[in-house]
Specification:
Blueprint lengths: L10 H4 L8 H14 L11 E2 L16 H11 L3 H4 L6 H14 L12 H15 L8 E4 L2 H12 L6 E7 L4 H8 L3 E6 L10 H13 L3 E8 L11 H14 L2 E5 L17 H7 L6 E6 L13 E6 L3 H13 L5 H11 L9 H27 L4 E2 L8 E2 L2 E2 L3 H9 L4 H13 L1 E2 L1 E2 L12 E4 L5 H18 L5
Parallel strand pairs: 1-12, 3-4, 3-5, 5-6, 6-7
Antiparallel strand pairs: 2-8, 7-8, 9-11, 10-14, 13-14
Helix pairs in contact: 2-16, 3-5, 3-13, 6-13, 7-8, 14-17, 15-16, 16-17
The structure holds pyridoxal-5'-phosphate.
Length: 478
């Protein structure tokens, strides 16, 4: 019998890259194991996971929203409401009863598109958010936004190696990884760091023309708003221009809006959904809007819940999406229930409201404080510039590295930013993701770090000390 080798597998799989869980994250896990041994010999006593936006991860410990978990507990075990009658607020018991009546046991498959009652609630949430109608039949509940992205890209790539998707650079690597998997072509356009990571219509037009010259058809435009890793928020005029651009080039607009409530400066940088823009200007552009329970204040990454809404999609395309989701039977019920509690939090006057408000206010305030502190202190370091993100969970500082460091990195067979990030990990235990994983202009180096780590003072001091030491270590050429 022939041995099973990677070459025997689908070659597209070998081209998939996903830096968020790449070399740095793997090395961090090894160090975490090493720390458990006596005399581990490492200059730190814990690994700090700044590499992934996973707020409830051990060590980051963002507390889950009590309301979400109480409803989830009663959905898992409805008898608990009678066994522990004083343990749950009345509105939680009523919510779980209502969901139970709509769903039955969460151990059963649901409608493939997601529980109709929950989709109706999502439609109401969208209508209240935007002031325009939403149809529950155009909403698909998913096992996280990633599942939606994967499905949509798999459906859009019609001619392998000749169908492309426009991707902002820096990007969240889900997009290039998914394109690689389905033999689609990433069509990159750079965001403008000097203008706080603004999106330029001109640069997207240039990417479309380049694709055209290379015989690749642009099928869709991905916009991440608020951005990952940049945290940037689009203004309304740019959003309108982007919709018009999609009209001009017959593009599907994939609006990744998973960070829509992570706003650190909501008065100057508000979130406006693309659904609202498309509805306002009555555009015919096919729009997919993605949302998730993994981010925001919910942070329920492991529960795997999200949804996408299709706007301006013809009925026969919706039927095809339905056919494809039905192959996977249904999204996880625990994730669907997570979506319901995210988009239907307690109302003022209900028993759970005060605690929900306190918990969510605290998460928003902590994130905004950390983002401001970290960006301010990073900016003050020699050779570092960092846009003070108005949204999402990350910072994406640029690091200008001494020539000696770049040479040493090349000798070690590493990209200079990966070289920097590995030394940061080995010196401090802080795990970040090198910019090469998200994309950056040639000759520029960045890294992405999350603003989710507790003890921000101590954390920033470690970053500062390391940076200064690194510059000294390679200061000969500077
Ligand atoms: C921009 C963006 N889209 C989608 C996702 C995936 O989210 P989910 O956990 O819902 O699959 C992430 C996760 O970090 C993200 O940053």
């Amino acid at each position: 019998m022939r041995q099973l080798t990677p070459e025997a597998l689908n070659p597209a799989i070998l081209n998939v890259q996903y830096a968020v869980r790449g070399e740095l994250a793997i090395r961090a896990e090894e160090l975490r194991v090493q720390l458990k041994g006596e005399n581990h010999g490492l200059p730190f006593d814990k690994v700090i996971s700044s590499n992934i936006g996973n707020p409830q991860q051990k060590g980051l410990d963002q507390p889950p929203i009590t309301f979400t978990r109480q409803v989830a507990a009663l959905m898992e075990w409805p008898a608990l409401a009678d066994i522990a009658p004083d343990a749950f607020p009345k509105d939680v018991v009523a919510r779980a009863k209502e969901l139970h009546e709509a769903i039955g046991s969460i151990g059963a498959y649901s409608h493939s598109q997601g529980v109709p009652f929950i989709r109706e609630n999502v439609a109401k949430f969208i209508e209240e958010r935007d002031g325009f109608p939403s149809d529950p039949n155009h909403i698909f509940l998913t096992g996280g936004a990633s599942a939606g992205v994967s499905l949509l890209i798999s459906m859009l790539i019609s001619v392998p190696h000749k169908s492309g998707v426009l991707i902002p650079i820096p990007q969240y690597p889900l997009y290039t990884a998914t394109l690689a998997r389905f033999n689609g072509v990433p069509l990159p356009f750079h965001l403008n760091e000097a203008a706080d990571w603004a999106t330029s219509i001109h640069d997207i037009e240039a990417a479309i023309e380049k694709a055209h010259r290379e015989g690749v058809t642009a099928k869709a435009l991905v916009i991440i708003n608020p951005g990952n890793p940049t945290g940037a928020l689009l203004d309304e005029d740019t959003q309108i221009e982007l919709v018009k651009l999609c009209e001009k080039h017959s593009l599907v607009l994939l609006a990744d809006e998973v960070y829509q409530v992570n706003l650190h400066k909501p008065t100057t940088h508000p979130f406006i959904s693309f659904k609202k823009i498309v509805s306002q200007i009555q555009s015919p552009v096919p729009l997919v809007s993605l949302h998730s329970i993994s981010k925001g204040v919910s942070g329920e990454c492991g529960r795997r819940g999200g949804y996408f809404e299709c706007t301006n999609f013809p009925a026969n395309i919706l039927d095809l999406i339905y056919k494809m989701v039905s192959v996977n039977l249904c999204p996880p019920l625990s994730g669907q229930i997570g979506v319901d509690t995210m988009i239907r939090p307690p109302n003022p006057g209900e028993e759970s409201y005060d605690l929900w408000k306190k918990e969510t206010d605290e998460i928003h305030a902590t994130l905004a404080h950390r983002t401001k502190t970290m960006s301010g202190r990073l900016n003050a370091l020699p050779g570092v510039s960092c846009v003070d993100s108005p949204g999402a969970l990350y910072l994406y500082p640029q690091i200008r590295l001494p020539d000696e460091a770049i040479e040493a990195a090349r000798e070690a067979g590493k990209e200079p930013d990966a070289f920097y990030a590995l030394q940061l990990l080995h010196d401090t235990g802080i795990c970040v993701v090198p910019g090469s994983g998200f994309g950056q202009k040639q000759g520029e180096w960045h890294y992405r770090l999350t603003c989710l780590c507790p003890g921000v003072e101590d954390y920033v001091r470690k970053l500062e000390k390391f940076h200064e030491k690194f510059l000294q270590r390679y200061s000969g050429a500077n």
